[in-house]
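Hi all, long-time lurker, first post. I run a small reading group and we've been trying to get comfortable going from sequence to structure in the token notation. Rather than ask abstract questions, I figured I'd post a concrete chain and ask someone more experienced to write out its structure so we can walk through it together at our next meeting. Sequence below, copied exactly:
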Amino acid sequence: MSTTMQLHLQNVPARNGRLWIRHGFKVFQRQPLALAGLFGLFLFAGFVAMLIPGVGLLLTMASLPLLSLGFMLATHLVLQKKMPTAGVFVAPLKLTAERRRSQLLLCLGYAGAMLVIGLLADWIDGGSTRDLQKLIADNADNANSEAIANAATDPRLFWGLATRMGLMGLLAVPYWHAPALVHWGGQGVAQALFSSTLALWRNKAAFALNMLLWGGLLMGVAGAVSLVFALIGLAQVTPIVLMAVGLMLSTVFYASLYFSFVDCFMFGAPQDVLDSDN
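-- Answer (accepted) --
Happy to help. Here is the structure in token form:
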């Protein structure tokens, strides 16, 4: 996995955005417990990191590029009929000193950008998002309190949310493939960020379809689960089921990232997965 490979940017048809999701599900079916366990482990590590005063949030955000690359490595192992372990998250840091430095710079850059986005959004919404979160936490046993209802109608909440989501979406573009381009392609930080941006731009139809399908899948599954458990009189367990389903779908999403990289940069993948969808 550490060998520098010749990567060639290519254009892919829009329909491939759907195939990436199908490939993700097929890989998950091969090693569901191992892949879900990796995602759960990352969430637990992030929770522990958040407990560190001052730097916990930054550490968690800085680790996100390694999460995406770690799942690409895990998918790569599953396709080779090998068992992925937690080592996939630190494997990118065990290559050459130059690549390790590039990965760490990507992580620091991502955390810094996320911090700036958060500060800008807080300035735009006047802190109304933080106030609402605090009210919800303080009134966990009385979620329908009048104070929460009033805070939720603050129009600044919309603009703060729009700023966060919009800028985070833009930040995802250069970082989508950048860690993988450093790991497999040996590219530097600037080149990897540029190559990732160019790949998403050239293949924007496939990525747009991919995101639309993921959004529809999430809403459809959430609606179906809520309806079914309401009809059978078990609405109280709906949040637990939704959490479990969300964990599975999140795992599949991260597993599918490998295939968008395969398509965009002509990196090899075992044909037993790819051929069945051609």
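A couple of things your group might point at:
Residues 97-125 form the longest helix (29 residues).
The radius of gyration is 20 Å.
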